[in-house]
Amino acid sequence: MTTPVYQNFINGHFLANQSGETFAVKNPATDAVIYHVEVADGFIQSAAIQSAQQGFAAWSAMMPIERSRILLKAVALLRERNDELAKIEVLDTGKPWQEAQCVDVQTGADVIEYFAGLAPAQVGQQQMVGEDFYYTRKEPLGICAGIGAWNYPLQIACWKSGPALAAGNALIFKPSEETPLGAIKLAEIYTEAGVPAGVFNVVQGAAEVGQWLTQSPDIEKVSFTGEVGTGKKVVASAAGSLKDVTMELGGKSPLLVFDDADVSQAVGAAMLGNFYTQGEVCTNCTRIYVHKNIYQEFIAELKTRTEQNIIAGDPLDPEVNFGALISKAHHGLVMSYIDKGIAEGATLLTGGKALCPDSAPKGYFVAPTVFIDCSDDMTIVKEEIFGPVMSVLVFDDEDDVIRRANDTHLGLAAGVFTQDIKRAHRVTHRLQAGICWINSYGNSPAEMPVGGYKHSGIGRENGIETLDHYTQTKSIYVGMSNIESPF
Ligand code: NDP
Questions:
Q1: Which atom of ligand 1 is nearest to the CA of 228?
Q2: In 10 A of CB 309, how many CB atoms?
Q3: What is residue 323's three-state secondary structure?
Q4: What is the pLDDT of residues 317-355, one digit of tens each?
Q5: Which candidate among 1, 55, 371, 469 keeps its CA 20 to 30 Å from the CA of 397?
């Protein structure tokens, strides 16, 4: 093998597996194998648990402010190495450098910084009950597991480890098999920053390694990001050992554009919410409901901007703003949805084909695609595609469009464009979604809780409440009076 081979990261260093089994990782923009990774076999799995147990003992005994200082050093290193890390994300995911360079590492670092700040601020309660009193302590859970998707690999590793570590837990993280390197780099950075060995471990492999994490009796919690179907399997498996779970799953989010909206702004949001990261974003507004009075204007501008402003090609080229899909298999899946859209009677406004840019001819590109004349029962309107495929639908009544927007078992996100402040809030309050944007789409600052309603998830990431999800409350009752016993 001429490409590098990465090992699992256990107890503060790389550790060779015993099976010798590896898997290959490809650059989606070139179809070339860029490196290999060793699979976490039984030996690695046992070592990971042992390492996390030792890491937890050391880390949880530290004062929160000490943990905070160390995590802030990691934040500084992440920011210092932004470009090196962003390049890894571009090569692993196929997303444009233009995005990775200013979003992926920074939003990951922001979240660790946010939770590092909160760690020393966590307090318990105290209350008198007669002469006696009780107080509570927020204690870490122990060993947690993180399982990540491939669209924002480093960011997901940061979003899971930030609150877990800030609260004093140890984490065993499994990145997606498609994008394993970002988490390894994060492990190196944590180690360099002074996070004790064993606190952040990275195990590599596909579903079997994920399954092991969900089943292990030594792990107290699983935080998972991925598809709804996989999420259900994870919850079922985690139930065997009564693990706490956080589930960040898929979506089929609606964007409602009312007739008083700023049409250009709404078109911009629709494009951002369908074509950013070539459509591989969980919160994407893939169902765009446009009021009939502005429908023609909306689709005319949408077509022009999609055809003129999107530049597909070598994702490392800073001019490129639209990258390759994660894999050949996923490319095939997205194309099959486009075929279904056509077969079920939707009209292609633009796109609808694979792309072969000169600068990346072997990449897995699908053209930014917009379907119009869509109806609510079409497969492309009902199912998450996770690619650059937008469905535009028409409405003329507020109550009816809210009903249609909510008519799905998913509920990750939603958006409303209107200049009417009362309508903006009235409608948003009735939308069944965990994240709603008004005259905006996609922003997700560290301070804001994110997560799904219905089948889109359980629990939240980011925001103050997330730290509670990585702690358990211990109540301590203190007797100050004599015990009254009938015996
Ligand atoms: P998958 O569900 O296929 O995989 C997610 C992770 O779970 C991967 O690491 C995967 O390993 C692992 N895995 C697969 N099977 C099991 C199992 N039985 N037990 C435990 N772990 C398992 O999702 P994708 O990676 O394809 O990511 C895309 C999906 O993620 C979309 O549905 C998207 O909406 C969702 N997502 C949700 C987000 C949110 O915050 N709500 C954010 C980002 C994405 P491997 O891949 O190596 O096989």
A1: 32
A2: 13
A3: coil
A4: 999 999 999 999 999 999 999 999 999 999 999 999 999
A5: 371
Minimum-distance ligand 1 atom for the alpha carbon of 147: 9
Residue 401: C-alpha distances to residues 77, 238, 298, 348 (Å): 47, 37, 17, 23
CA of 146 to the centre of ligand 1 (A): 11
CA–CA separation, 131 vs 282, rounded Å?
53
The answer to whether 380 and 374 have CB atoms below 8 angstroms apart is: yes
SS (H, E, C) 61-114: CCCHHHHHHHHHHHHHHHHHCHHHHHHHHHHHHCCCHHHHCCCHHHHHHHHHHH
Residues with CB under 6 A from ligand 1: 147-151, 174, 176-178, 206-207, 210-211, 214, 225-227, 230, 233-234, 248-251, 282, 384, 386, 412, 452, 457
CB 414 within 8 A of CB 253: yes
Q: Distance from the CA of 249 to the center of ligand 1, in angstroms?
A: 8
pLDDT of 167-222, one tens digit each?
999 999 999 999 999 999 999 999 999 999 999 999 999 999 999 999 999 999 99
For residue 366, give the nearest of 179, 94, 104 by alpha carbon.
94
One of 89, 177, 248, 280 is an active-site residue; which one?
Answer: 248
Q: Is 282 considered catalytic here?
A: yes
- Tokens encoding 265: 């702004």
For atom 16 of ligand 1, which residue has the closest CA?
207
User: What gap in Å lies between CA 218 and CA 85, rounded to an integer?
Assistant: 32
